[in-house]
From TrEMBL:
Coiled-coil blocks: none
Organism ancestry: Bacteria, Pseudomonadati, Pseudomonadota, Alphaproteobacteria, Caulobacterales
Domain SGNH hydrolase-type esterase span(s) in chain numbering: 193-372
Annotated keywords: Hydrolase, Signal
Residues annotated as signal peptide: 1-20
Protein name: Lysophospholipase L1-like esterase
Gene3D superfamilies for the chain: Galactose-binding lectin, SGNH hydrolase
Keyword NAD: no
Alphabetical list of InterPro entries matching this protein: Galactose-bd-like_sf, RhgT-like, SGNH_hydro, SGNH_hydro_sf
Keyword field contains Hydrolase: yes
Chain residue ranges for the region called Disordered: 402-429
Amino acid sequence: MWHRRAVLAALAVAPAASWAAEPATPMQTWAFDFGDDKFDFGDDKLAPGHVRVARDAAYDPVVGHGFEPSSGPGPFLFSLAVPEGDYRVTVELGGKAASDTTIKAESRRLMVERIVARAGKTATVEFVVNVRTAALKAPPTNAPGGVRVLLNPREDGAYDWDDKLTLEFCGPAPAVRRLRVEPVTVPVVYLAGDSTVTDQRFEPGASWGQMLPRFFKPDISVANHAESGETLKSFLFEHRLDKLLSAIKPGDWLLIQFGHNDQKVQWPQTYVEAATTYRDYLKAYIGEARRRGARPVLVTSMHRRKFDAAGKIVNTHGDYPEAVRAVGRETGVPVIDLLDMSAALYEALGPDNAWKAFADGGKDATHHNNYGAYVLAQCVVNGVRAQVPDLAAHLVEGLPPFDPAHPPSPDSFVLAPSAAHSTEPPRGN
């Protein structure tokens, strides 16, 4: 049985499998408790010390909390104004009727999945959410540098880059009773990368980075700074690395995965050569992390979905994956070989089924859907276990072994969808 990061009262909750299950009857109940500020969204007698908030209370920046716009029944989002930082979130789930709740944070970061409670019972789950804005501390007078991350137009309105902590409650029957948010200082796993790593804002696309928080205990935070279309160079001149480095601290980790866009000769301003500049930029990132006491980890890019006549994956990344491995050997940095694991995964699915792991109904051979992102995150977890034991100590207990050569069927995979949908392809596609 999968560990849910939940504190379950005896006989109170019946955890469901992560794959296909019978849907439950939709229901929603709310009651939130934010540290010293306590909010009650229920219909029962007001709890002592709580403030009643109407269920239709839209987010108000003056009030500092409220529900985000919703197009109707289904997933609902609640936001709370908070400063940048990491926050421990404790949620009591359940209600009078049976419930089935999945929780995502910010731009669809998967925090907990399929928490099932029987009628009249509750379950409590706990996780940590990283919150950030695009602002940078201004450099000293006459010193070079920027005051903001140079966001692209597609990031406008993203919950990843605002001054709120946003939670999305999904599933066939989400039921939330109480919620507490409190600032916390914990180790942080920072992610630097491209569209195959970023928090994809819209269904049905997804990337492994936004699935990763689900696999960690609530004693660590995942801060995903990756963005679609990025390269080692653009991540620098858009001040994304500056933003990441402004917060990273001793004991944190930095996972670095670039390559899909760096190899594009047709992008002359950001192209880097595998044998020279690509390695040099990777070393610069490694050096910046180490200078601040953080621990860098390199990740090779996953394959694109291109099969040969024998059903084997064709390498479209040239010498870039080997360059990552060479830099790892030279600098003593762990390397998670997602390239090899993705080949095993896609070949196990085969040409007739591998498309089911990819975006746009398989028309996109680079980017993934929820299933593809989830199983690639499991590959990354495998790499963490094998190559980064100090980080592996923070993985949730009870995770079953995952073999990329024997993946679960995409036809039986279930992950509650989010409210936001788009048919626009990822930037840089």
